[in-house]
Structure formats: structure tokens, C-alpha cells
Amino acid sequence: MDVEISRWAHRYDVLGETAFDTSTGNKSYSKELKNIIIKEYLVGGISTYDLANKYNLSSKSVVQDWIKKYNKGIEIKDYDPKGDVYTMNSRKTTFEERLEIVNYVLANDNDYKGAADKYSVPYANVYNWVKKYNEFGEDGLSDLRGRPSSKEPNQELTDIEKKDIEIEKLKKELERSKMVIEVLKKHRNSGKNGKRFSLIRQEDKYETIDKFKDKPGFTVDFLCEILEIPRSSYYKWENRVIPKKEIQDNELATLIIDYNDTFEGVLGYRQMTFYINYFNHTKYSEGYIHRLMKLLKIKARIRRKKSNRVITKPEQVGENILARDFTAEYPNQKWCTDVTEFKIPGVKQKIYLSAIIDLFDRSIVSYVISHHNNNKLVFDTFDKAIAANPGAHPIFHSDRGFQYTSKIFKMKLDENGMIQSMSRVGRCIDNGPMEDFWGILKSEMFYGIHFENEQALINKIEEYIFNYNNWRLQKKLGTTPNQFRYYVKIPSNLI
User: Fold this and answer.
1) What is the 8-class DSSP label of residue 302?
2) Does 362 share its domain with 443?
3) Nearest to residue 220, comparing CAs of 185, 183, 194, 189?
4) Helix (H) / strand (E) containing 395
């Protein structure tokens, strides 16, 4: 008793003399008011009892009922008693009217009361028509009063009607199944082109709903049911404020996808970072780019392991003069060379690429493509390099391939005033710059790429080497090889 008196006193303090006014009917509550009260409860921590007193509600159970609906994902609607829709007398309606009423209810999230008021028919009638429509289709709305019963003669007609109703029902089930499949397929594929980076759980489901909700027949209720999420969760996501970090992640993800497509998937996270920062004047870290690339499932092609080579007895060998010092202070100070092979698509034949690289800017000085890995291939490459750089006297480094250990090749070096340097036996790292170049070249333009024929492969190799010298950025240089060669000022005493 003391508790009850305390409640009366508290209510009187809040509402004054109106606290004990009796109501003769249900009150109207707007959707906006309900959401305000729910938010005050969830965010402000105000009790349901105090909220009921604050807004002059009949009891705290009213607030509790709204909160319960919100937590279950049931849409909060305006409430207007309109008691007459429950008690009004039934009137005769046509089939077309009943169909129109049902369509109105379905189009307005099962607003039975609104339909009853709009069309001046009892609430119970509206409810039954919708129920029959969902079960039997349009045939369920037919007025069968006065029709012969199943016990009377005309049994054949009744059976046909039943079959028609069943067919209509199956059609509706089939249509619904198609809609379900369409939604689930879209949701399954939504993450494949991953482009959003949010900490929000189930965001892929929210995005799927967003794509379908404006299509005919795809209501939010239907979509939430299929994807098994509360409606309140979706509406909360829809009205959220997107963080700046998420916006930045998505913008950068778009850049990463574009660069990956442009460069045909050859950029690892280090090169991707360098290219993005270089062309966009940004300062993103490699770790940041790496994280986004992992989320996007983007990575550079993996290089294949190099096959074992057949070791031949050399005619003569040189010392490892270079000694893994792969730096150069000016052009044509140090050259490295090697030969690699490519298998021609569809046939057992191979083509061979011989190239010379300048350690000053890592540019390709010269190259030759041939069907034969012989002395002529190496000698032609050397002659092209001399023709393009007359007067060059570099340290010339190679492995111990039979072409480089021949006496004729040693004579060509001596004639041009070059110092021969060779890798040690079994130490491919001694010729690291060439090995690096082969790995980069094959991973970026050969592995995982289909070529129609031999000429297509040759054209691709030539195109790649041109782009490598003129367009491919190198992190160590901060620019392309040719830009570095022609725009970096070299002290005259070093040339």
C-alpha cells in the first residue's frame, strides 16, 4: 500500500491534478513520439515508470511493449485508435474491392487498420481477406456464398476450383522462391568485389537489403526475414553516420582495384604503395595498403622457382670482381648480363632472351630474342650494347654460362677495354640484379597469362622491356630508369 501511495504522489508531482483523470478510450501515439521515448530509455537510462509519468501514459507497460517490439525488430508505427473499424457493420463488397484492399495492406506493411478505415470495412474482414489471399491467391477472395456445397451434385466443378486454388498457391510459392534465390545469390556475391571496410557486423546483409528494397515485391520485412536480421538493425544502419576513416578506406580501395587492373595484377603491396603515393601525392604507409589489399584479396603473382641448370666445363673463368657490390655512381660503370628461357604456348619449342642491365639505373642496355641459346645470342646482345653506348668500359659481370666462359667472348671484352667479372659456382645471388629482373619480368608479364602464339609472346616481351625502361617506377630510384639516367646530374669527375 505504501508503494502504491508513493507512486501516486510521484505522479501527482509530475502531472499535477490531471494525474488521476480517467480515460474514456485509447489515446493516439505518433511513431515519432514512440521513437523518442524508446531512445530516452535506451540512451538516457530513464526508467519505464518515469517515462510513463513524463509523457502522461497510462502505465509503464505501454513503454515496455514499445521497447519489446523495437528489440524484436518489429516496425514502430503511428497509433490511432479508430475503434469504429473494429465495431462497424459489415457491408457487401465486390471481388475487385477485396483485391484492392488486400493489395493496399500488402503494399503498406500489413496495415490492416489503415485499410479498414480507408475503405470503411471492419478490421476482421480485412484480416480474413489477407489471410485467404496468402493461402489461396485471388481465388480466396471469391464470394462462395450461395454456391453448391461439396455434398450436392456438381462435384466436378468444385474439384476444378480446388485445383485452380492449389495451382495459384504453387505459383505464389514458386515466385517467392525465385525472389529468395535472387536475394541470397546477390548476398553471396556481395563480398567478392569487396569494397567496404567497416567494423559493422553483417554490413553485407544491410547492403543487400538496400539494393532490393525499392524493387516491386521486395519489402524490407521480406528481405530482413530472408537474411535473418531484425528490421531495427537495418534501419539503424541506414541512418548511421559513416566515419571518415571508413570513407577513406573505401576511396583507397577503389584506387587499389584500379591500379591492380591497370597493371594486370603484378603490383605487390610495396609497389602498390609506391605507385599510389607517387601519382596521388600521398603518404600512405605500406602496412595500411597491405591491410586493404588483404581485405580485397589482391596480391601479386607468385614467382616460380627456377629450374636447375646443366653445368658445363668452362674454357676460361674470371674472378668475382663485382663481389655483390650492385651500386654504381655513373652510367656504364657496371653491367650485368644473363640468359633466360620462355616456353612457347602450345608447342615444345622455347625462345631465349639475353639482356644486359646497367647497375646505375637498372635500365636494360640491350636485349636479343632467339630460338637458340648459343654464342651468337650472347654476342649479338653484347654488340647491340656497344653500338648504343660507344666508348663504354664497364665491369662486365655474368654467371659461368658456356657463352661467357668462351675464349671468343673474353677477346670481345678485352677489345672494348672491359673488365670481366663472374659469379662463383652455385652462387646465383652473385648475379642478383639479373635474377631479380627475370623474376619481375616473368611474374608481371608471363606467369598466369595466356598467349595465342609465339609472336604474341615476343611482342609482349618487347613491350614490357620498353615500359620497364620508360614507365615502370622503381622505389629505390624514385622514378623510372630513363628519367633517372637523363635528369640526375652526375659530377663530371665521375664520368
Assistant:
1) P
2) yes
3) 183
4) strand 395-398
- Looking at the fold, whether 353 and 472 belong to one and the same domain comes out as yes
Tell which of 190, 222, 238 closes a domain. 238
- Best CA proximity match to 337, nearest among 282, 381, 274, 273: 381
Q: Helix or strand or coil: residue 152?
A: coil
Closest listed residue to residue 129, CA positions, set 150, 164, 103: 103
- One-letter amino acid for residue 164 of the chain: D
Q: Interior CA angle at 64 toward 63 and 66, to 5°?
A: 65
Residues 329/334/338/344 CA torsion (nearest 10 deg): 50
What pLDDT, on a 0 to 100 scale, did the predictor assign at position 11?
A: 56
Residues 343 and 446 in one domain: yes
C-alpha cell at position 180: 529468395
Which residue is it, cell 544491410? 206
Q: Are 81 and 58 in contact (CB under 8 A)?
A: no
Query: How many structural domains compose the chain?
Result: 3
Separation of alpha carbons 134 and 172, rounded Å? 9
In whole angstroms, give the CA distance from residue 258 to residue 367: 31
Report the distance separating Cα 300 and Cα 290, nearest Å.
11
Where do we find the cell 489477407? 130
| pLDDT means over runs of 10, the chain (495 residues) | 55 54 57 80 76 75 78 66 62 85 81 81 84 78 57 53 80 84 78 55 78 81 83 79 80 87 82 87 90 85 54 65 87 92 80 94 93 92 92 90 88 90 85 89 84 88 92 84 75 50
490, part of any domain: yes
The C-alpha torsion from 82 through 85 and 86 to 92, rounded to 10°, is: 170
Separation CA 21–CA 8 (nearest Å): 12
Conformation bin of residue 57: beta by default, left when phi > 0, alpha when psi is -120 to 50: beta
Task: Give the per-residue pLDDT at 315.
Answer: 56
489 is in which domain, residue-wise? Answer: 334-494
Beta partners for residue 338, in sequence order: 355
DSSP-derived 3-state class of residue 190: coil
Rounded Cα–Cα distance for residues 89 and 446 (Å): 82
Taking alpha carbons only, the member of 186, 142, 139, 193 closest to residue 166 is 139
